[in-house]
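Notes from the pairing session

We agreed to fold both candidates in a single pass and log them together. This is the raw record for the first candidate, unedited. Please don't reformat it; downstream parsing expects exactly this layout.

Candidate A
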Amino acid sequence: MGDGVRRALGDKSESWAVAAASALLLALLLVGGSTQEATGTGDLVVRLLSLPILAWGAYRLLHAPLGTLRATWLAFAGTLLLIPLLQLAPLAGGGEGRAALADDLARFGLPPPRTWSLLPSATRDAAFSLLPPLAVFALASTLSHAGLRRLAAAIVALAMASLLLGIAQLGAPQESLLNPYPQWRPALGGFFANPNHQAALLVVAATFAGAHLAGLADAAEDRVRPQRMLRILAAGTALALALVALPLTGSRAGVVLAIVAVPAAALARRPSATGRGRAGLAVGLGAMVFGALAALRWMRTDAVDDLRGPLRAASETIAARFAPTGSGIGSYVPVFEQEAPPQLLMGSYVNHAHNEYLQWWMEGGVPALLAMALGAVVLDATLVRLLRLPGRDRALGLAAWIALAAMLAHSLVDYPLRTPALLAIAAALAGIACAEATRARKPASTHVRHGSGRVPGRHDSTAAPSR
């Protein structure tokens, strides 16, 4: 890659523009796409707006070094988009569930399903809904370190805005303009219809805030300056608000995940290049996992009225009937109503399986399993690459990785990634982790250049990613 392109990728003004475009798209999704049923003009506008942003991100990716890790991330993103597109193709035959459905349709003189997906319109919409998160990932994965810090700060600011809106909603009437979903009583949801999804965003914000506070406290060589004190105050306030509000959302999973994610992000800066450092980090993480399990047991409530277990069991049975092709991305509601046992048929419809991976298996079949396996591989490779870096160099990327892992863990008992806003934020976290893991680092300097203001061990934050 030529010097001119390197300067373009590392240009501060462009970095500001890229971070601002990513943050703007996240804000639009948060305001207008915080529920999985987001449809209408606003949703269409956001998807159309994401097209030039996606093209911009693709241009930057074409002019950035590829490398194995970045190529694997791109392959994973492409696989997610390919699955719903593949399901729009014609398909003959299928699993037991598809054959039973064809028999039922034949009784009424109707033809069997012609495409891989049983609900092509929903699958087509699911493919279009991936455009904004893909655009966010493409831009974030090419940002400079300074730009990534701005993007992380924007995510925290959006979480605080949603939290403040939720607090205002509690004191306003149900039909107030402050409540985006007047059909439900306000419950500290903010921009979200589901308070559990507000909790997922607060966990991400707390993780970034905790990591930033640890970095500010660890900078012993820096002089105390007003700007640094303001950053400490801002990060501390965001962390405190997120931790205090999490139990108020009613999300037990959110509280447990914060117990693990925030200390893990704070420990991310600890040296681990030596065996002793890695052992200390492993012991610390193990202790936090044990604390999380203890907290989960302590918060366990009577699950007699909790339908999530039976829903997941029924969804698993349905998924096996539609294997190996799956029922089609976006087809969960009608397929579940058709196949569910009578005792789970209620006046209100079941919108999701409350287990993202089980629902992917039901809707996507074997291709979805392969995509999840590829995602696990790229996450593991990114973590290994980040842990090999010095503490300061890996702090931001590892915080993003931990926040993403918390969101993926939350998906075991809920469906945060089914909301457009949280899916795009997960894409931003993946982009930050990818960019930090693949960025070129200059070797630490052994001398301070007089008059330059450089400190030994500091690196150029605008260096372009390399192989």
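Candidate B (folded immediately after A)
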Amino acid sequence: MMKFSAVSVFLILLMVGGCASPAKDVGKAYVSSKKYKNYTCEELHAEADHISYEVTKLAQSLDKEAAKDNAQAAGFTVLGFFTLGLGWAGLATLEGGDGPEAVEYSRLKGEFEAVRQMATEKKCRL
């Protein structure tokens, strides 16, 4: 039976917490619907379409980055176990965390919600 040292457990937790998040785990930023109060229904529809396109692009990129980070982290973890800890050094090479794409994704999700709220207020169909 394999025993985990405190350092091993810490590094595993660091690895899991340091990987990029998949799109489904990125929350949405608050954006006031008042930003869109002067938009017509047609403009709201066009804005919703544009935001949806950008959100889809970013979601694909975030999911790809999260999968890459997870695969690299798994490889370094296995290497760490089988090389008596020498593979743990590879974890330091992971970029990890959520970068500017995740921030933009969160903002755009908030923008879409604001557009949707204003469209509902104006009784527009999206």
